[in-house]
Amino acid sequence: MKRILITLITVTSLLQTTALAQTTQPPKVVFIKAGRLIDVRAGRVLENQGILVEGERIKTVGPIATVEKTVPSTAQVIDLLKYTVLPGLADCHTHVLLQGDITAADYDEQLLKESIPYRTIRATVAARTGLMNGFTVMRDLETEGAMYADVDVKTAINRGVIPGPRMFVSTRAFSATGMYPLLGYSWELKMPEGVQIVDGADNIRRAVREQVKYGADWIKFYADRRYYVKDGALHSWVNFTEEEMKAMVDESHRLGRPVAAHAMGWDGIDASLKAGVDSIEHGYGLDEGLMDRMVRQGTYWCPTIYVGAYVAEGRAAAGAPIWLTMRDLEAKAFGIAVRKGVKIAYGTDAGGYAWTENQAKEFSYMVRYGMTPMQAIRSATVAAADLLQRSNDFGSIEVGKFADIVAVSGDPLRDISELERVRFVMKGGEVYRNNK
Ligand SMILES: [Zn+2]
After folding, report:
1. How large is the average pLDDT for residues 157-176?
2. Residue 349 CA, ligand 1 centroid: distance in Å
3. Distance of CA 352 from the midpoint of ligand 1 (Å)
4. Cβ 108 vs Cβ 100: under 8 Å
5. How far is CA 412 from the centre of its chain?
6. Which of 142, 183, 207, 364 has its CA 20 to 30 A from that of 378?
7. Does residue 272 register a pLDDT over 50?
8. What is the 27 CA–ligand 1 centroid distance (Å)?
9. Exposure class string for 290-323: b at 16+ Cβ within 10 A, else e
10. Cα of 431 from ligand 1 centre, angstroms
11. Furthest C-alpha separation in the chain
12. Measured in angstroms, how far is the CA atom of residue 423 from the centroid of ligand 1?
């Protein structure tokens, strides 16, 4: 008993010392001088702007001459006068626990031959890569068989153990029996699953509660599979009954968790919209009718164009030429969706292709398919923050928001591929990259 008491006292005094250390240390102050600053909310570019950062948030933004007067002498000054400065980018569809799966063999190999600890070590590298690419926010849409390891990656980042973006994680994702890899093995073998397999509305409600219990910020599920083209449109087989999907979305929303649906074909998108999901992932089979419904319901589209283009050739060569058709259908759908005002959030499916490919390549496709460079940047900043329901914290360089700031040397509004060459990355007032 005595020993416990002594331990308690030691722990208490230790806690007090730490608290004291924290209160006596003033927050770090940084003054950034930006030659050009992209005001994503107003859709304009401002010149010679000063950003005063105190601790992890932005205290003041305005013309350098005005802000300079309020800068304390102890402030660290960062000169970005020759650069274009913009808010940290957000990738709303990643898989840090995956290292590319052009073919089924690539995928199966990772689940069969790599342990979850090994995959998690690689995930920490992926998270750092994302941050260095300029992505200060990532919504990671399922671990592909690595259970809740994404929650651990997020915790390690938040505690400062490893560098990485602000993570929004969805843990294991859902599909129904027989509708998600690993498939095609002997029935005598118990194979690992790439998702949490659930059947029946009641089981689904319990499974949603379980994922939320273990740290899911979002719920992700696979709405469809077996894609085919009929009358020029992409169709699919739906994985869940209407009752099951409704149970999943209702239970998630009841627990305050938004829902992302992997929905490629018309049928999967239709079913997901009926169930009331918050974002449609991929959505290659979108037609005008579905787009109008998305506008009415306020549903986001996360198009993941680059991964489709990237895997198309490989998958076609492996015997699935439909991926070439899907790529072309999406190019057409994207332009129409932009004109109709469908809410579009930037998402790349990084991890679906190797992390050595810069996930900022998606920007060039968005512009080629019908967005202005400003619209493309907004999809990865203000729009992404809105999708993630965190507009008060990030998505623009404004007073009170996290100091999540990136810079490039050229003008991304003239050449959007400049965003593939990010030179400076700050997250929460800390500089993680500075290659000026
Ligand atoms: Zn994905």
Report:
1. 98
2. 5
3. 6
4. no
5. 21
6. 142
7. yes
8. 38
9. bbebbeeeebbbbbbbbbbbbbbebbeeeebebb
10. 29
11. 80
12. 27
> 204 alpha carbon to ligand 1 midpoint, in Å?
21
Ligand 1 centroid vs 10 CA: distance in angstroms? 48
Mean pLDDT within 6-26: 54
Q: What is the mean pLDDT of residues 393-422?
A: 98
Q: How far is the CA of 278 from the centre of ligand 1 (A)?
A: 16
Residue 106: the pLDDT is: 85
Q: What is the pTM of this model?
A: 0.93
- The alpha carbon of 106 and the centre of ligand 1 are apart by a number of angstroms equal to 15
Alpha carbon distance 296, 289 (integer Å): 11
pLDDT in tens, 348-370: 999 999 999 999 999 999 999 99
Distance from the Cα of residue 78 to its chain's centroid: 28
Cis amide linkage into residue 182, ω under 30° from 0: yes
β-strands 430-434, 424-427 pairing: antiparallel
pLDDT of residue 25: 82
State the distance from the centre of ligand 1 to the C-alpha of 93, rounded, in angstroms: 6
- In this structure, the dihedral spanned by the alpha carbons of residues 153, 155, 157 and 158, taken in order and rounded to 10 degrees, is 160
Work out whether strand 135-140 and strand 166-169 pair parallel, antiparallel, or are unpaired: parallel
Helices assigned H by DSSP within 37-115: 64-68, 104-113
Tokens of 48: 């010679």
